[in-house]
Structures are given as structure tokens and as C-alpha cells.
Amino acid sequence: MGMTITEKILAAHAGLEQVEPGQLVNARIDLALGNDITAPLAIKEFRKLGVKVFDPERIALVPDHFTPAKDIKSAEQAKLLRDFAREQKISNYFEVGRMGIEHCLLPEQGLVGPGDLVIGADSHTCTYGALGAVATGIGSTDLAAAMATGECWFRVPETILLRYHGQLQPYVGGKDLIIYTIGQIGVDGARYMAMEFTGEAIAALSMDGRFTMANMAIEAGAKNGIFPVDAKTLAYIEGRLQRDYRVFQSDADATYAEIIDIDASSIEPQVALPHLPENARSVRELGEIKIDQVVIGSCTNGRLEDLRQAAAILKGRQVHPEIRAIIIPGTQQIYREALDEGLIQIFIDAGAAVSTPTCGPCLGGHMGILAKGERAVATTNRNFVGRMGHPESEVYLAGPAVAAASAIKGRIAAPEEVR
Amino acid sequence: MIIQGKCHTFGNDIDTDVIIPARYLNTSDPQELARHCMEDLDPGFAGRVQQGDIIAAGKNFGCGSSREHAPLAIKAAGVRAVIAASFARIFYRNAINIGLPIFESAAAAAGIQAGDEVKIDAEQGVIVNLTRGESYEVTPLPPFIQEIIAAGGLMPWVARKVNRDV
Ligand code: SF4
To answer: Could you tell me if A253 and A241 are in contact, meaning their C-beta atoms sit under 8 angstroms apart?
Structure first.
């Protein structure tokens, strides 16, 4: 019987010939990730075992959520990571100034490759599926156990095959495709399942666009999102990935729980309304929605291509006088490249604030918290109640083009409106 | 395992940001987290909830982030068990790993009203609503997961394994 790419990767790491959905397997992992919120709890649990980490090269610790430390408690949490990394000789610890948002950083640094099995104590670990890896979020206790054993248990997920047909319209990118998709299937539409993204619109999508889509698989409840490996994937890992990798492919006779065909050519730029990512609308359907803040960044849309799209719209224009536009490059390297390309200058000239890499406002941490009644357009991934600040504030999710256009207009706007 | 208590009810898609808002995640002290449990949805909850109470909710409970602080906050607030029509994947793992009993039952989620007294019989896989005289079937846990629960959570389970290996 044929297997999907997800099933093959899980089988290979569990040392099995064949697995099927629903089966529980114990599998060897290639990388385990923790951050300044989840790793402190994991470290506390890990210490109870009195052992050393299974392999210091296969653990990554990234202080990105509340860093540069926003208050004393956050500083203490980050210090726990730092001290643990030194003690256990974990080289993949990334300090402020060399750091980035974990899901932008790990692929960029060549820590994830095709065929890998990666777990992270962060729900958006599913981002790495863009590279043809199985990557999924787990909790702190799972991370603690994996740091000790190098293994983790998994329930083999069923897979939903998504096929995107046709050519994308202007200003439509990975963010619009995934918001549209979640709008179709709902926030639990892929609960416990793998989402396999295929079709000619996906083949045409850049790696940055694929990372954005895989990132939000969790917003449909999925265990992982995964893409076929192609020339773009191989070009991306070239010069980054320092170890062997294996390319897996779904069999033609693999079994899918569902196959969904999407006419990608009909999708317009999308916005997800508060307070769930499934509240997807075409930006043009929305009436006048005044906003107070725009955030461009996060592990969803903080990559170079995202910044380029925003800069193309902001170039020579001004952020609306009543808007605070906050732009956060995903990693130090992206920041540097944006600087070299003149993007940062465009943002600053437009009247936007540019920050060092951090999760910051995405989770309502710092660097742009909303007051009661305020509204933001954000290129982030969640618009839950209170996600970016006060429980009575609102977050509208969109791609960088809509976010940049909205920053100029002071209301939610389509990219064409500022041409 | 028999768990009996009074139910607090919540709707569908209760996300981890309302269970414990990120602004309180600069600590992992369970008692401190418990003080803010459900705050953005029901600011009075942390003050009202009594030791031994039960949460009953709709589909996709615990969706969103991987923060284990969410089940920890619920547990430290005194909640003995969570019943839901369905659970989001990471929350499900986390609850089992930290020893917060969870029960999947669409019938219970539909039938239980706020304030109902219910009795959960984990072995029999049944929830009895003592207030309404109804009973609901629970989706059974896979044996492997029951093994983790029986060991007292993931860490005791792993500890046995690690020691066996050395
Ligand atoms: S940017 Fe937002 S979603 Fe991504 S890891 Fe940071 S807090 Fe989580």
C-alpha cells in the first residue's frame, strides 16, 4: 500500500517499513527546539532525570519571544536558557544580536532539511514542512523527554491533500492562500492531520511563501503541513544544510483522508477578521475598517520577500499620520539583507518603526501592544481575543501587501488602492 | 479513577491565549498562572473556580499555542478534569504529559450545563450527569497513552525508560 510523505518520514524515523494513520510510533528525532517561554519549563522537567542531553548538536534554544528581555522575569527566563545551553554545550543557542524568530532562523541556519523529523516546543514548528520535513509542535514536557532520549511518540496522522490550481493574481501570496484555505476548512478542519500542499500554484510559490503556508497549518489544527521537495527546496538548502538529507515523496497510490481542489487563480488578497483565523474574507469585500497599528513581521511573514513586498508599496509614500507601523525582520540576517537592499531606509523614510528581530507584538509580548478598543492589521498568524494586547482590541490577519497598503490608508486597504 | 465535581462550561475553539494570556508567560509558576486562568474570556473564573471543579467545553479545546502553561494553569486553578467535544492536538498531549485528566465526549459537551454535578468513571468510559440524570459515553484513550497516565505522566514514564537504558 502506498504511503504519503508524512507517513514515510515517520516510518523511517521509527525504523518501520510501513505505518498507517492512527498508529502510535516512537521515533528518533533530528532536532528539538525550545524558546524562552517553553524551554524554562522543559529544563525544569529535564533536570528531574539527572541525565545529559542526548546530543547537544540536535537541540536548538532560541530566546525570541520576550527578548531583548522586556522585564526582569523575562530576563530570568532567558537566562535559564543561556545557562542551560552553556552547561550542556548546546551550540545552537542564539543570542540577541545573532538571533531571530525561531521559525525564520532554524531553516536559514541550515538546521532543518528535507526528510527530517523535527519537534519544537512551539506550535509553529510546523513551518519547516516547507522543506519537505515532518515538523510539529509539542509541549515543554515532551521537549524535556526528547532532550533526554532523542525520541518522541507520535500518532501517525491522516493526510489531507490540498491541490492548488492555476496562477496567482497580483499581490496574492502564501498568506492569502493559507488564510483562504483555513476559511474553507475551519480552525479544526485539519485537526490531528497532515496538510499536504501541492499543485501548480504551489510549485510556482517561493520558499518564503511556502514557509508562510506551512507555518499556519496549525491554525487549521493540523499536526504538520508539508510540501513536496523540488528544485526550489534544494536551492534553498544549498550552502545552508551541513548534513545528509533524504528526499521523500508521496506515492501515487497513497491514501488521503480527503482531497481538496482549490482554484488558486480566483483567490484575491485575504484578511482574517477577529477573533479566529478562519474568518477569511477578500479584502475588497470589507467596508471601511479604521485601524490604529500595522505590524509586519513574525514567523509567518517576517522574511525577506515579505519585507520586499511591503517596501514596494511603502516606497516613496508615508504611513498614515494616525497609524503606528512596526516592521520586524525575522532574523538578524534578514535585517542585514533588508538594509543592503535599501528596504529599511524605505520603511524609515515612510515613518515606520523598525525593530531588531523578536516575536514581540505577535503574542502580545512587547514592542507594540494594543490598547482597549484598538485595531491592528498584522502579518502574524493568530487573531484570538487579547492576542496582541487588551482583550477588547482586535487583530486582522493579512499578508504584507495588504498590511503595507493599510498602513498608508489608515484603514484596511487593498494593495491596488495605493498604486 | 472516579472524578466528581461541578462543571464550568465554555464554548468552541477555546484557545490557549484565553486560557492563559501570553502577557503572563514570563513565569512558569503554576500558582501565578492559575490566577489568570481564562482571564480574557471570563475574568471572574479564577476567583470562582473551586478545588475539584470540572471544565466542560465544545470542540477544539486548547487550540493555538504549544504553551504547557495552559493545562498547568487549569490544573493549578483546582480543576480536576476537562471534558470537551474534541481537543486540539498539542493541548491533548500536554494535558496527558502533566497529568491533567481529559475526556473527549461530544455528547457530554452538548448535554452538560453550567453548574451541573457530573461523575466521570474513567475505567468504564462514562460520564454521568447527576444533575440531569443523563449519561454520556467517553472516547477511550489508546493503551499507550493509558500507560503514560498510569506512570503518572510523561516524565516518570521516561525516567523508567532512561534508567533501563543505562
Ligand atoms: S512570531 Fe508569533 S507565532 Fe511566531 S513564534 Fe513568535 S510568538 Fe509564535
So the answer is: no
Q: Is A91 in contact with A222 (CB distance < 8 Å)?
A: no
Cell numbers of A414, please? 487593498
Rounded Cα gap, residues A377 and A128, in angstroms: 25
Q: Which of A78, A80, A87, A26 is nearest to A52 (CA)?
A: A87
Report d(CA A304, CA A296) in Å as an integer: 11
Q: Find residues 151-170 of chain A whose CB sits inside 8 Å of chain B.
A: 153, 155
Instruction: Report whether B76 contacts B84 (CB < 8 A).
Output: no
DSSP state letters, A122-156:
SGGGGGGGGGT-EEEE--HHHHHHHHHHSEEEEEP
CA of A260 to the centre of ligand 1 (A): 28
Written as nine digits, the cell of A261 is 481542489
pTM for the full predicted model: 0.97
Nearest ligand 1 atom to the CA of A302 is: 1
pLDDT in tens, chain A (419 residues): 899 999 999 999 999 999 999 999 999 999 999 999 999 999 999 999 999 999 999 999 999 999 999 999 999 999 999 999 999 999 999 999 999 999 999 999 999 999 999 999 999 999 999 999 999 999 999 999 999 999 999 999 999 999 999 999 999 999 999 999 999 999 999 999 999 999 999 999 999 999 999 999 999 999 999 999 999 999 999 999 999 999 999 999 999 999 999 999 999 999 999 999 999 999 999 999 999 999 999 999 999 999 999 999 999 999 999 999 999 999 999 999 999 999 999 999 999 999 999 999 999 999 999 999 999 999 999 999 999 999 999 999 999 999 999 999 999 999 999 97
In the stretch 329-348 of chain A, residues with CB closer than 8 A to chain B read none
Of A202, A138, A127, the C-alpha closest to A172 is: A202
Q: Are A243 and A229 in contact (CB under 8 A)?
A: no
| ipTM, 2 dp | 0.94
Residue keyed to cell 534508567: B163
CB contact under 8 A, A73 and B27: yes
Could you give all domains of chain A from N- to C-terminal order, each with its CATH number? 5-262 (3.30.499.10), 271-413 (3.30.499.10)
A230 CB burial (10 A radius; 0-12, 13-18, 19+): middle
Q: Does A372 touch chain B (CB under 8 A)?
A: no
